Amino acid sequence: MISALLPNYARLDLAFERGEGSWLWTTDGRRFLDFGSGIATASVGHANPHLVQAIAEQAAKVMHTSNLYRIPQAERLAQRLVDATFADSVFFCNSGAEANEGMIKMMRRAMSDAGKPERFRIICFEGAFHGRTLATLAATGNHHYLEGFGPEVEGFDHVPFNNMNAVRDAIGPGTCGIIVEPVQGEGGVRPADPEFLRGLRAACDEYGIILGMDEVQTGMGRTGKLFAHEWAGITPDVMSSAKGIGGGFPLGAVFAKEKYAVALKPGTHGTTYGGNPLACAAGNAVLDIILAPGFLDSVVAKGKTLRAELDRIARDFPTVFSEARGQGLLQGLKCLVPPAQVQAACAEQGLMAITAGDNVLRLAPPLVITEAEIDQAMAMLTKAAASVAASAKSAS
Questions:
Q1: Alpha carbon distance 33, 105 (integer Å)
Q2: Tens-digit pLDDT profile for residues 207-241
Q3: 110, 59, 64, 92: which is closest to 271 by C-alpha?
Q4: Is this structure's pTM higher than 0.90?
Q5: How many C-beta atoms surround the C-beta of residue 156 within 10 A?
Q6: DSSP per-residue letters across 50-98
């Protein structure tokens, strides 16, 4: 008999009742160091006092009014994000998939408004992940995710990641634009080469097409810049964000230059919950923390510490890992054994990690992680790797 809660997730048998900073406690009293952050979402840690206060104070006033009316919290958050980024305008929604769906619609509509409705095709990349709506599944292009849902949404062309020649070959008379993740998170924590991102910007300028950046997982300080594309010294035309933008509260956003933002006129796109007072109170509180002087510099420093330790662990356990890769506080270990086996061994040590494609163990701790907690996590990971290596040796 089916459970009351739809069993569409392969859930681990862990239930958490409270958190503090980088730590979580289960209902049976066990403590875990969280290096998953709810899939890179609890950006400012669990029960962050500033975020909790902002949500509580707003909830006691008004949580939701709908977008039939002005929302001062959303206006303030949008202005702050515009001031801190390339964008001229921001649309708020609830999730990463919705942000990517909105970005796709904006790109297509902008090209149609420019008198080129035939240019609706978008170049995406092998290994990408853009969400689970029908359009974002088609943009993702993973046949495992698409199976059984009928015809794919038309208009997405997939080429190898980090291959500029393939991109240029794919651009045609029907091309609207390109969507890329600066680091493919779900696809295996694979960073785009900075030169590749610069090449995408140049190609979009050359061919008059739109550059879309999926920063759902890489944005809001995850790599040590507010958004990861900044490392390449470029700006996209449109961009999606979610996950860490609300610190765990559901919030997503589409950022755009004015030329493209004006495509979404009243009646073309919308959302009931998106950008409501409570969500934007959370977003403003997260931004207070991330934009505080020195915060992003600390993420860069902690990312370097984490990466150095992961490189060491990969060298120390060559039968378990082949390499470390990633950027900032989004790192991964390419596994030579099933990553779920390493994930389980980590959990036995009290460390929460998550998996990703390409046989990768993904590590994405809260941005407020301390250097001491990174040391603790790496000690746990070392023990877990030793356990996996010993099991593999005895099995052989």
A1: 39
A2: 999 999 999 999 999 999 999 999 999 999 999 99
A3: 92
A4: yes
A5: 22
A6: HHHHHHHHHHTT-S---TTS--HHHHHHHHHHHHHSS-SEEEEESSHHH
